[in-house]
Amino acid sequence: MYKKYTLDNGLRVVTEHIPFVKSISIGVWIETGSKQETINNNGISHFIEHMLFKGTTSKSAKEIAELIDGIGGQINAFTSKECTCYYTKVLDSHYELAIDLLADMLFNSKFDKEDIQKEKSVIYEEISMYEDSPEDLAHDLLYQSIFKNSSLGFPILGTNKSLESIERDEILNYMQKYYVPNNAVISIAGNFDEGNLLKVIEDKFGKWEKTENLVIKEETLDYNFTHYSKSKDIEQVHLCLGFKGIPLGENKLYPLLVVNNILGGSMSSRLFQNIREDRGLAYSIYSYPSTYKGGGLLSIYAGMNPNLLDEVSALIYSELENLSRNGLTALELNKSKEQLKGNYILGLESTSSRMTSIGKSELLLHKIYSPKEIIQKIDDVGMSEVGDIIKEIIDLNHIASTTVGKIERNLIFNKAN
User: Residue 348 — pLDDT band, cuts 50, 70, 90?
Assistant: First the structure.
């Protein structure tokens, strides 16, 4: 059972009490990510995420680590295109300490100039690591290509050039703009005393000052369906394909999830069975949908020997053409729905996943669907909805592609490859 509270400063608090567990997961969510950035400060959201672990006015970075390790807990953070989350998972007897630590990091981080320079070096290495991971690079390049006219295409890590110019004053100004309670959510799942929990949150976050000038950038995404390749001296070629997807919060996501499961979302999917299992042409091949405010993507990835690129891409095209022409069978529809429900329910076994689910949903949608409502949305998907979503999404005349590997030409994606 979810509960929602709103503090006087606009901070939303969403909770799910799970009395039969001994853990508690706590997340502080901020609605800012690379989508809110500019070409000049690209990467600042992710950089701030790193800096909040570098020490506060009362604790060094080492002391933060020792404090959470000393209670057998976990603390971490992540930055995405649309949000940043700082989270902990601890035994239920330690949640006051965890909340105090998150508040201290959020409000009292030092942003020492020497630490800023050190952390830039760390992130330069992180960027290099992504460059050395061709699968990640292929996905990043797909976003940069298909959303080249939108900040959604910016890399979350930023670039060496954009990070170089980010200094302390710009960090503080950015936080003053976006790190405000009316742009944040605290989500909590696990075992806790409700009255005391809210008292602790009010004590630690109640004086957080809101802004009256909050502006979250919203835009209808402009898709750029081009083919792009990056030559890299590696053993495989990594291929990513992108179709226009479904925006966050739309019910059409559920038929798309059903279709994706059958196309490439599981080991029994058409792409995996045909290209990997039956023909042995690729070790890894899969598809997945991504949803954002204003738009989304359906992506397909495959990694293969350079000599097999044309054959694999032609087989993918044939599977897409078959899906577009013939749709799913009734058996596939029912199987996919059961798989989705099973995966969803199994995901609810963890307090971390529940905290993430309710936090992100409240932050970006301002509402939370119960498990019963989610299951109903999956059950409601029928052949008509599946046919409509295939017609809308699987548009073989509008496909973006990126390839990374020993290839000197852009992919021409069609059946005749």
Answer: confident
Active site residue 49: yes
Superfamily of domain covering 2-205: Metalloenzyme, LuxS/M16 peptidase-like (3.30.830.10)
Give the DSSP letter of residue 75: E
Q: What is the mean pLDDT of the chain?
A: 94
Q: Which two tokens stand for residue 21?
A: 């567990």
Query: What length does the chain have?
Result: 417
244-268 confidence digits (pLDDT tens): 999 999 999 999 999 999 999 999 9
Contacts of 93 (CB under 8 A, 6+ apart): none
d(CA 50, CA 79): 10
- Predicted TM-score (pTM) of this structure: 0.94
Q: 16, 31, 37, 49: which is the annotated catalytic residue?
A: 49
Q: Measured in Å, how far apart are the chain's first and last C-alpha atoms?
A: 53
Output phi, psi for 229, to 5 deg.
-130, 150
Q: Residue ranges per domain, the chain?
A: 2-205, 227-405
Instruction: Kindly report, residue by residue over 94-130, the tens digit of the pLDDT.
Output: 999 999 999 999 999 999 999 999 999 999 999 999 8
User: Which of 32, 81, 30 has the alpha carbon at shortest distance from 297?
Assistant: 81
What residue type is assigned to position 191 of the chain? N
| 292: nearest Cα among 83, 61, 116, 45 | 83
Return the number of other C-beta atoms located less than 10 Å from residue 211's C-beta: 16
H-helix segments, 7-71: 44-51, 61-69
